[in-house]
Each structure stands twice: as structure tokens, then as C-alpha cells.
Amino acid sequence: MNNLIILPIIIPILAGLIMVIFKKSIRLQRILSILAIVSTGAVAVILMNQISKDGIQVLHLGGWKAPFGVSMVADMLATMLILVTSIVAVCCLLFAFHSIGEKREAYYFYPLFLFLITGVNGSFITGDLFNLFVCFEVMLVSSYVLISLGGTKIQLRESIKYILINVISSFLFLVAIAFLYAMTGTLNFAHLSQRVAEVGQDGLMTTVAILFLIVFSLKAGLFLFFWLPGSYSAPPTAISAIFAALLTKVGIYAIIRTFYLVFYHEPQITHLLIGILAAITMVLGAIGAVAYGDIKRILTYNVIVGVGFILAGVATLSIEGITGSLYYLIHDMIVKALIFLLGGTVIHLTGTSKLNEFSGLIRLHPQLGWMFFIAALSLSGIPPLSGFIGKVFITEGTFVTSYFWLGGIGLATSLMVLYSIMKIFINGFWGYTVLTEETEKGTTKGLMLPIGILTALTIVLGLGTEGIQPYVDLATQTLMNPDIYIHAVLGSK
Amino acid sequence: MINNMETLMSILVGILFAIGTYLLLTKTLLRIILGTSIIGHGVNLLIITMGGLKKGAPPFLGRKETLFTDSLPQALLLTAIVINFATTALFLVLSYRAYRELGTDDTEQLRGIGDE
Asked: B92, exposed or middle or buried, with CB in 10 Å at 0-12, 13-18, 19+?
């Protein structure tokens, strides 16, 4: 029992509720939201140390032992993701302070942001399938409001589609949960894993597994990503950056959790399917990223490529593959937030997202230009930046398990990613300077701090990979041996 | 007898899903939202049916019966209903706002207007 585990959920939700009361004092809301998220990150750091010393930490809510009550399980993967979530969230908040606008701030932007973080943290740390659904809903309902906050025409149009897709996928989630409960009689992840291993994963169980895959694919943007480019380009930069960094990753986390802990008995069906979907996702995403000449579109299609690449490693069900996926997952959360913030700053300066309408930004904004360059290299996995190590391990994983086509597609699409981002850099930053200081639509005042933090982080993560290696190894070890997880939650039998 | 009831419920769930899907495929926003609502009811019935319909006494301590009804699906169901209610309410409000701003509730006209 470790009561610290509940804090990543309690802190943001309490802070959010308090902020609703103090609607008028924006200053208080800003300070409180930063404090809440920083302390959540600190809790994650403490938990990570405890886990690496004493193994997985478990909290049985209300003292009801698993599998009867709802358990919160903090393993290394979940805690690591909470830490990265906190870092990214702080940066997006800092960016929002100077860009989101007073109107949105007055209409509960900060409480909603914290409720979103509550849902994300809850999804990471829960050890119960139905509780995962509830945390998904907390996250989604906040994201419904965030995406439509401000009420511009494009936001309303896209939010309707976004809500409809997610409502339907939530229903499918419930259907899958109902079938699984009928077959196994439990919803606790550890207990599920045990029961499925006992009765064997027969045809019906695999069908339910694929239903779960469809649900999580809709959330993660794996193959079923048709809703993603529209919805992620509608809201303001700070919101779309946090969406790009976190929401799809929660779907990926759910896929990793269910297909490494529960449904790992038929990899030639389920994991191969994940691999095929990942390959198609990468190809379609890369085509989209190369085809468009609009910054927002290019960036959202890059989110899709990233999802495909992470799940290519997941599909291999090998130590190398999943190690790579975890490195790349952490990298992707940071660098997607970074590139969205950079793209948003460019749009903020020029007032347009069309690439052919501006050029030569580097003369007046050299720092912005070079940070964009670093982010672009990191995104496509050039050493020594943070994307490299994950890319190496995922590719190695696909080759070791002789999914050569998957690794090949992964490498080919990363070239296309590089091209699509460099297209923004060359067209937007090089060339004749169109805008003078007077004609620019906005300033970079205050926006460079969060971008600088994230850029520094991607360099540090790339150079100091050895620093996080023990943590990632521990997470991989737990994922590859479900018994560790089961033992920690249910106790020895 | 109990088995018959569960078969009947399963068929009802199927009918609700069919109606909901039909409504989802129409073009008017309000019908689509009603469709999600009906599918939601189907899902709720499915959860309760999958947990097994009334198999025994209410699960209280100090009863003489040895066979109890599983109360977990009912707890899940209550949570699902609340969440479903909240999302439907939000969805309705948002679609009304969108209708006023955009002047249409026809999904054909809600496509992206030539972004490129």
C-alpha cells in the first residue's frame, strides 16, 4: 500500500475544482495550475525511485484487496509517462500564458486543462479496465470542451466530428468490456491476465481483443486516424500541442498495456494486425505530411507517423522492439509538443499557416529558426538527439523478429518526415524576408521559454540516454514478464 | 427460463444497435445524436445482460440464500449511464451552438471548406 500513488490524480482535480471557485482571479489560476502540475511531476519522481528500489507500488482503494476493489498500480512505465506528461504540460501552460487570450482564460481554460491532466494521469496509473474507461472519459470530456473553447466556426465544426467519433469509440469500449467480463468475470488487469492465461485465448477472446484494438486505435490514431488532422488543427496552439503530445499517447499506452499484459497469447494474430495497421498508418501519414503545404496539416500528419512508428515496435513483442517503443514514446511526447509550439509561434508571427505566404523568418528570429531546425532533426531521429535511440531499437526489434517490411517502411517514412519538416524550415525561414518587425502579427515575447525548455530536453535526452536507461529497462522487464505485475497486485499465491 | 430472458435481451440489444446505426448514418445532426443515445441504451442493456440476469438474492450479508446476484455489472452500468448522460448533454448543447454559428445541421455542409 502506498498512498502516494493517488496523488497524480488527486492534485490536479482538486486544484481544478478550487480554480472553478476563483473564476475572476486569473493570476491565482496561473500560479495554482503550475504548482499543481509541478508537484505531480515531483510525486512521479519520488515514485520512480521507490519503484526502482522496491518494485511495483500498488494502492487498493478503500482497503478492498484486488481483484475485488479498484487498484491503482504504479509500475515504471506508468510513472515515467506521468513525469513526461507533467513536463510537457508545464511547457504548454507557460506557452498558454502568453498566447491563449483573456477570453479563454476567463472561461475556465486552466481548470479544464487540469481535468485533462487528471484523466491522462488516471489512465496511466489505473489497474482496472473499467476505471481505465472512466479516466478516458474524464480526459475526453475535458478535451471536448477544450477543443471547442472559444467557439470559432472551424472549432465548432471540428469538435462535433471529434465528439461523435469518441462517443462511438467509448460505446465500443463498453461493449468490449461487457464481453470480456462475461467471459472472465473480472476487470482487474492482473486478474484478467491470470484468467486469460488459465482458460487460454480462444477465438472468441481474440475477437474481443481485436475489438479493444479497434477502440484504442480510434483514440491513438492508429489507422483509424481520419478524424485527427481536422480536430488537431482547429484549436489554439497550446491546446493542440497538449493534444498532440498526450491524447494519442494514452491510446498507445492502453494498447501496450492490454496487448502485453492480457492478450499476449496469440501474437501471430493480434500483434501481426498491430504491425500491419502500423505500417499502413506510417505510409498514409507520411504521404499526408509530404503532400500538404500548410503548417498545421504537416504537423498533424506527423503525429500520425509517430503513432505508427511507436506501434511498429510494439507489434514485434520483443525486448528490443518494446524498449525502442518506450524510448520513442517519451521522445515523441516531448518533441511533438515542441514542434507544435514552434509551428504555432510561426503562425502567431506571420498570421498565416500557408507555407507559400511567408519566408525569411530567420533574419529577425534566429533563435526560433535554429530551435526549429533542432526539433526537425530530432523528429526524424538524427543522432545525437532524443529520437535516435528509439529509432535504432525499434528497427532492431523489427529485424530481429524478421518483420523486415515493417522496419523498412519505418525507415523510409522517417526520411519523408524529415523532408516534410525541412520543407517548413526552408520555405519559412530561408529566403527573402517578407515581414518586417512592424508588419508582424505578434511577438515571440514569453513564447521562447517553453520552447527553449523542450529543445534543451530533447538534446539532453539524446546525449544522456544512459541516465534514463535503467528506468526504461525496468519498464521493459515488467512488460515482458506479466508475472511481475500480477504478483505485485494480487500478492503471492 | 433465465436463459430465454437473456436471449431475448440480446436480441433487443441487437435491435437497438441497428436503429442507432441507422440514425448515425443519416445527415441531420439531431438524428445522429439520438442515434448515439439509442446505442448507449443498447450498450447499457448489454452490460447488464453479460453480467448475467437475476441469478439469486441481493448480495447482502446475513442472508440465508447461498446464491447471490453479481452486483458489479450494476455498478458499472450506473457509472456508464452517468457518463453517457453527461456527454449527450454536452453534445446537444454544442450542436445547438454550432447550428446557430454555422447556420446548418446538415453533415454534408459540415465538411472542411477547402482548406487547401
From this structure: middle
